[in-house]
Queue: 2 jobs
Job 1
Amino acid sequence: MTSSEAPREPQNVDPAELAKFTSRADDWWDPTGPFATLHAINPLRLNWIGEHAALHGQEVLDVGCGAGILTEAMALRGARVTGIDAGAEHLEIARAHAVESELEIAYHHTTAEAFAEHHAGRFAVVTCMEMLEHVPEPESALAALSRLVAPGGHLFLSTINRTPRAFVEAIVGAEYLLRLLPTGTHEYARFIRPSELAARLRAGGLEIRDLTGLTYSPITREYRLTPSVAVNYLLHAQRPDPGGAD
C-alpha cells in the first residue's frame, strides 16, 4: 500500500461537506453504524458494475472511496485498485482495513482533478459513488473523471436526482423518518438530474451506456435496482476506443 501527497489548492472540496464524513471515519466499517446504507447497497452496485465491465486484472480507480467499502469489494474480484479521497481520516481507516483484509490497494489523499493531471487515460474502470452531490463543482469533477478513463474504458457513477420525490424520499424519509442516514447528509440544491450528468459526460467524450435507479422498501428493508431514476440512480458511460471494439 502506498500513500501520497496532500491535496493541493485550489480544490473542488467543501470542508463542511467533507467534515460530515471524516467526523465519522472510525465507524465506516460498522455495518450497523452511520454508513450502514453503503454496506447494504454495496453488493447491488458491485454486481451492476460487474455486469457492464470486467474487473479481474483491470486497472480500476475508485474516486471518493471513503474508507474503502467498494474499493475492497472490487479488489476481491481481482481488480488492481487505486482509491482516492479528499478525507485523510478516511484513508487512514481504509489503509488499516486493507491490511487486515490482506489486500494490496493504493490509496492517495487527493482529488479527481489533481489526480487527472498525471493519470489521464490510465484506467479501464473508474467509479465515483455518492460523491458528486457533495462537491462544490460537480462539473469540474465530471470533467476530471472523464479524463481518467482509458480508451474503451468505463465510468460508473451514482448520485441523486433533483426532483420533488427525491427531496421527500432521500432527505425527509431517509434522514428524518427512517433514520437510514444521519440528518443533514444531503442538501436538495446539490442533487443532479441525469440529463445534466449525461450532457457533461458527452462533452468529455464519453457515451452513455446505461441508466438505472436504486430504491429502498421500508416494508422489506431491502434495496433493489429499478427502472425509475426519480431518486437515487446509477449511470454507466464508456469512452469509445478508436483502435478497437467497445
Job 2
Amino acid sequence: MENIKIMVIFGTRPEAIKMAPLIKELEKVPQIKCKVCVTAQHREILDQVLEIFNIKPEYDLNIMKTKQSLTGITCSVLSGLEEIFDKEKPDMVLVHGDTTTTFAAALAAFYRKIPVGHVEAGLRSHNKYSPYPEEINRKLTGALTDLHFAPTTISRENLLREGIDKNNIFVTGNTVIDAMKYTIKENYVFENHELNLIDFKNKKIIMVTAHRRENWGIGIENICKALKIIVEENLDVEVLYLVHPNPVVKDVVYSILKDVSRIHLLRPIDTREIHNLMKKCYLVMTDSGGIQEEAPHLGKPVLVLRDVTERVEALSAGTVRLVGIDIDKIVLEANKLIRNVEEYSNMSKSINPYGDGNGSVKIVDALIKYFNNVSI
C-alpha cells in the first residue's frame, strides 16, 4: 500500500466523539496521511471535543449561524468543500452517521468522484420524518458510499436489503465505545463545580438531554412537565438537565423548570464530563442517538424520549425503552425504574450490543485491505 490521503469530515459534537478514536488509529499507520476538516455545524460544543482528544483540524469551514436552516448548512458545506477537495485531492473521504454535514460532505465527494467511507452506516428507523432529518441523511449518504462501516449485524442487514454489496459492508461495533476508553476515569472530579455538589450516593440522579428537532415545541414542553411530576412524586430523585443552548429549546425548558426544586438546569458539558456523569447517575432520559449506545455500556437504563429509534439493537437487548413524549407514559416508565428494583436490574444488567471498543481498529484494517486492492 502506497501513501494514502484520507480526509475525515465532521461538524457536530456527536460526530467528533465517534470519529476521534478513529482519527487516532489512522494516525498510527505510516502509510496513511490523515487530514481533518470540520464544518462546525455546531461550534462551541464541537471545540470541546477537539480539545479533549487533541485534534487540530487542517480545515475549518466555521459555517454555524444563529437559527441556521438545513438548506443553509447543506449549501455551505457543499461550497466550502469544493475548494478543499480541489486542493487536497483525497483518496477517500470518511463521514459519520446522520448529520446534514455527513450527507453534504458525501455528496461533495461524489461530485469529485472521491470514494466515501461511512462510519456508523446502516441505522434505520424506517420513518422518513423521525428522526428528522437524520433518517434521510443516513439513507442518502448510504447511496453515495463505497465502504459501509456498520456497527451491528442489524445495520448490515438493513444495508443488504437496500441492495448494498455484502463485500462493501464491514461490521465493526460502534466507535463511541472506543471513545469511552479515553474519557472514563475512576474517582473523576467534575470541572463543573455544581456537579461535585450532587449527592450521587444517596439520591437517584436522572440525567436528561432533550433537544431534537422533532421534539421542538410540544415535545420539549411535555418532557419538562413530566420531569416536574417525577421529582414531585419521588423525593429521593434529582434531575440534571443538560440544556441545549438553542433558544428554541432553552427558552421552553427555563420557562417550565427554572424554579423547580431538585431540578438542576445546566449548560452543556464536554464529553469527559458527560461520560463520567452517566457513570455516576442512576438513570438516563434522552432523545439523543449516541447516548442510547453510551449509557448502556456503563450499565445505565435509558428512557428514549422519542416514538421511534434507529438503535433497534438496544431495544432488543433491553438496554433502552421507548417512552415518546406523552407525559403520562414518561412518568409511568420513570417511576417503574425508580421504585421497582427488579425492573431496574433487568435493564441495567442487559448486555450492550454495540461492540468491544475496537471498532476503530477494525475500520482501519478494512481501509488498509481496500487500498491494498486499489491502484491509486
